[in-house]
Design goal:
single chain; about 375 residues; mainly beta; 16-stranded antiparallel sheet; 2 helices
Length: about 375
Amino acid sequence: MPLFSYANTDTTKPEPRKTLRNFMNPDSLSAINFSIIPIPIVSSSPETGVRFGMSLDYFFNAKDKSAREKNEARASFVYGQVTYSTLRQLDLLGAWQVFTRGEKWVLRGRAGYSAFEERVWGIGMNTVPEKDYWEFSYQRTFAESRIYRQIKNNWYGGLSINYNNTFRVQYSKPITPAFNYTDGVAGSTVLGLGPAILLENRDYPFSARKGSYFEALFQSYLPVSSTPFSYQEWIIDYRKFYPVGKENSFGYQFFTHNTSGNVPLRELPRVGNASLFRGFFGGRYRNKSLAAAQSEYRFQVWKWVHASFFTAGGFSASSIGNYHLPDFLWTGGAGLRFLVNKKNRMFVRMDYARNSTMGGAFYLRLNDAF
């Protein structure tokens, strides 16, 4: 299979020629529709040291050959990546989001293996000081899948399945009462499934300018093997986007993740990642309930260069009823976007964010945060 493939989607304006000169010219490069994109991964953080690797991303649009005009489904992707860090942390990951012909089915999921290390400050808002965390290292295999069938228009119903096996757990120092949690601290195996519903009418799934997205799911986890973890999980994710002028847009997201029962440590809702609560280290706060909102203004700077301003805020607590205003968490930041696929509106983004505890983080990713 060739490293890159191309598709001419504009019958009035021919696609730029595949010449070395055009590959060196960003204006021409952004107009070429890559189907397979190799992406080098280089990042650095206190948790991982220097992290490097490679991701191979395949993008395509399923065509409805039975339709008179052979309509294309929205962009789908399948990717695999391998990363390794100077702290000997290994990640093998595969992920997919597929719109089938006529968008009758939507298939989403991810699976992989990791030998990783996280920081844990304890559970709840009253954690140990910033520098007194536990290093929580483990190995993990996982598989998550959501299968949706179209109900009507852009509404889908389906099934969500989640399997996670966390094993060979070690801590950098003995666990004390300040850790404030016992379930799954030595590892866990969980298997959950349940119903899910999806509304997907964004114009571009990777970087929407208009439309709505709504996903809600419930999963019940039953004891698996020798690990007696039985709990329930609810997730609601709503996003809305408004075009501003020709290229700019404004979007916001409301997200909540709630659990009840004896939830293992690794499966607790957490604050901080590259998509939500940018600026917090992943897992800086953990508990059984998380609620957050974020907004972002995206605008064009020059041709294939875009930028954004964003902010987020929310709560982490043992339940929704225990959210308290003094515990409100917030982040804010800005970033640059570089257009790499014009047809599917895909960007490489660079974000920097600060949080309410005066920490910060830098992110380099493909596609927008939400």
